[in-house]
Amino acid sequence: MTEIPIDHPRYESLITREKIVEGVRMGFTSQQGLVAQGRGEAFDYLIGEKTIESAAVAERAAVAYILLAKRPIISVNGNTAALVPESLVALADFTGAALEVNLFHRSDARVHKIIELLKSHGAVKVLGGKGDKRLDLSHDRAIVDEEGIFSADVVLVPLEDGDRCQKLAEMGKTVIAIDLNPLSRTSLSATVTIVDNVTRALQNMIHFTKEMKQDSRQSLEEVIEAYDNNEVIADALYAIQERLKQQSEERGIRWI
Fold this sequence. Notes:
- The chain is α/β, with parallel strands linked by helices.
- The protein is about 55% helix and about 10% strand.
- The protein is built from 11 helices and 8 strands.
- A 6-stranded parallel sheet has the order 3-2-1-6-7-8, sandwiched between helices. A two-stranded antiparallel sheet has the order 4-5.
- Helix 7 (about 160-170) links the parallel strand 6 and strand 7 (about 175-180).
- Helix 3 crosses helix 10 (about 215-225) and helix 5 runs parallel beside helix 9 (about 200-210).
- It is globular, with a radius of gyration of 18 Å.
- The mean pLDDT is about 90.
């Protein structure tokens, strides 16, 4: 990777870009993933490159859903494999969720590489290699494992395609999305929408899992009952508006 000086004002962002580029070089990430990363980075800038309060609320609700689930699954694509393999494995380990590789630009070679990557970070079992069931979609995101996403009751889908998110919701599954665009199809279709950078979101969820894992079923259900996804999306939009307003005023630009 390119050497990035730690005092560079865009250090974290540039390191993230380098990880995605390395993911393409290693065969985990598709070239199209570079475009998706850039889009997410733009929205991250709009929310201030930090976890806003409503995102933390969504992350706690997501953890509650996963801990209460009978068959929770964490879906892994090329970008998340390149960016946060350690966090994916850790969250699965702490929550008891399974990991499943699911790709839009799918090939057996890419699936195998990502499975081996996750195992190199401590995962014991990673699903996605069988592909013995299909969702009602016309692209390769439809290919899933019967014992994994197809049978899951709760699915965490970081950096997701909107149509698969919609299809999973139509199947009656609880869908937890990590998406920096609060108005994407994914965000608007999910049960829980986490408007946060995936690197921060997974670390926060690991932290909340450690706090909440011993909570009673009733306590976890109360977290879910108090959660309102529409409020979370509305707050994310408000946060973007306020940041734009603040940045404009600081530079003497008239805010309309």
